[in-house]
Automatic annotation (TrEMBL):
Catalyzes the oxidation of uric acid to 5-hydroxyisourate, which is further processed to form (S)-allantoin. This is Uricase. It holds the Pfam family Uricase. The keyword Ribonucleoprotein does not apply. It comes from Sterrhoptilus dennistouni.
Length: 284
């Protein structure tokens, strides 16, 4: 049980310059006894309102240097404060505020919300067990207008999809990774590096791009690139929910439409998912 959707803004001031972190937290506990479920005995139950207040107090006292460190703070607090807690899980996601720039100069106290992917993390721990930390990015919308196709796929009497060697590749990406044994990582730096790897693997070189023969291959390329560049990542999951576009037939309007006006196919849409990890991690 626990408290979901604990939303708040943490404002940090350094002189005239302000810093903001707006987050949403879900904190869940499992107690050493199920007596509240089986017997209606609430003597061990930490009220969900108390859970909410603890999260807010931790934000006030410790700040939010990174989402991961804040999630770890939550886990550590419940494990060290309440002997009846057997398991704790903290999920934290961030509202994507970015500092506003005017004529190239960063503003000291103004921000803009930029929907270019939502950062999130999870930390969980069992009593006498290791602390496990996950991080990720979701709702990241990506598009490449060429260098994508889908050919040579299996066909039978139900196949109506034509082969394409030049199409728009567009999708909403969810990516989640685990760090394995949690150490003193610079979580902010690692997250930014992984995000850069995702974008680079998806797009290819800026002057020419890179051909994608399928959404599945793109998913795998992203995972392989992250694992090759970021040694702290042990397992990475990527889900790419596809958005397809159809070329509008403008012959009745007396116009030739050479893939210049397209409409998205709202539903149904495809989805590709894969989890990839280092061999040594799966051997353990």
């Amino acid at each position: 049980y626990g408290k979901n959707t604990i939303k708040f803004l943490r404002l940090h001031r350094e002189g005239k310059k302000h810093f903001v972190k707006e987050v949403e937290v879900c904190a869940h506990l499992r107690l050493t006894s199920p007596q509240e479920y089986l017997e209606g005995n609430n003597s061990l139950v930490i009220p969900t309102d108390t859970i909410k207040n603890i999260v807010l107090v931790l934000a006030k006292k410790n700040g939010i240097p990174s989402l991961e460190e804040f999630a770890i703070d939550i886990c550590n607090h419940f494990m060290t404060t309440f002997c009846q807690v057997a398991y704790v899980k903290a999920y934290v996601q961030e509202v994507p505020w970015q500092r506003l720039h005017e004529d190239g100069a960063p503003h000291i106290h103004s921000f803009i919300c930029v929907p270019d992917g939502i950062r999130f993390c999870e930390a969980e721990q069992c009593r006498n067990g290791p602390l496990i930390v996950f991080a990720g990015i979701k709702d990241l919308k990506l598009m490449k207008t060429t260098q994508s196709g889908f050919e040579g796929f299996y066909k039978n009497e139900h196949t109506t999809l034509p082969e394409r060697h030049d199409r728009i590749l567009c999708g909403e990406l969810f990516c989640k990774w685990s760090y394995g044994e949690c150490k003193d990582f610079d979580f902010n730096c690692i997250w930014k590096k992984i995000r850069e790897c995702i974008l680079e693997a998806f797009a290819g070189p800026p002057d020419c791009g890179e051909y994608s023969p399928s959404y599945q291959k793109t998913v795998n390329c992203i995972q392989m690139f992250v694992l090759s560049r970021v040694s702290q990542v042990q397992v990475i999951e990527v889900v790419l929910n596809n958005t397809f576009y159809n070329v509008v037939d403008m012959k009745n309007l007396g116009l030739t439409n050479d893939k210049e006006v397209l409409v998205p196919v709202e539903a149904p849409y495809g989805s590709c998912a894969c989890t990839l990890g280092r061999k040594k991690f799966f051997e353990v």
